[in-house]
Amino acid sequence: MAYTTINKSTDYFNTLLYVADQQDNRTITGVGFQPDWVWLKDRDQAVNHQLFDSVRGATKQIHTNNTSAENTDLNSLKAFTSDGFTLGTGWGNQTTGDKYVSWNWKAGGAGSANTDGDINSTVSVNTTAGFSIVKWAGTNAQATIGHGLGVAPSLIIVKNLTSSVNWLAYYKPLGANKYLEFNLANGSGTSNTEWGNTAPTSTVFTVGNTGSTNTSGANYVAYCFAEKTGYSKVGKYIGNNNANGTFVYTGFAVKFVLLKKDGGDGWWLVDDKQANPYPNPNVQMLVSNTNGADNNSVSPFIDIYSNGFKLRSNWSGVNGNGSDYVYLAIGQSLVGSNNIPCVAR
User: Fold this and answer.
1) Which of 40, 174, 272, 310 has a CA 20 to 30 Å removed from the CA of 255?
2) CA separation (Å) from 147 to 11, 58, 219, 327?
3) Global pTM?
4) Looking at residue 333, what is its pLDDT?
């Protein structure tokens, strides 16, 4: 049984479903906290994923499914509120009746100056939940950047805000000379440049002089995750090409999974709120590197349990024989540090 210092995971991460009504200044409530990172997706239409955070500011969006630079949309997410966010009549609330999902994380507000690295950064951090948002200006040289977590992050997702270049992701299980491109369905690349072939430390991570991480004249944002027992896990599993598939132990009731095959295929997103049928087997998923609507082409797909998740498909995108897959899972331990049992679902 995994114990955790996080007794209520929904204080730090929550999935919320809502239906668009195209009404201006509509406030979406029920998140349970003021979010610092909001990820929106229309489940009914092929439109961009929309990501907003408190460091860059409301109205400023980026998209995981393309390379576009940051853009400002005054009619999308207009403000972060104490229990959610306010929408305009643009994407996020544009087509009446469309079903949306929002994934919401709590960091530390608008952020503050961090001077731990070679490059000064602005950091919004929640050390309890192991999540930080980092923004910096590129220098075109290998350098370190402070992340504020107090422990080494296991996953870092970076986007150049100024130019149209690929997203980049560091996964600890792959090593510091490997990188994945968050907007593409390809396998990991090998390079000593992107992360300087240097693993993150408890204070900084390293970036090289590439357009994706640290070119001169560009601004960047990074979303950093450190594993927390009973709440979050970054790991790797090996597929077995069996409908009674690989079981991945996390030690907590899984509420959100992002997984990716190293060797090709998409970045698959699953959560416990969209589960269809509920609770298992879940056949509903989204793909962060495409603009596609809900995808239920793989049936059954995944089972979400009180201590992990299990692949229920022999499809190579998630469970190819001998293939490596990396993942981020977030959820809730059954027992907290106060020894009070938590509800698994």
Assistant:
1) 174
2) 21, 21, 16, 21
3) 0.95
4) 82
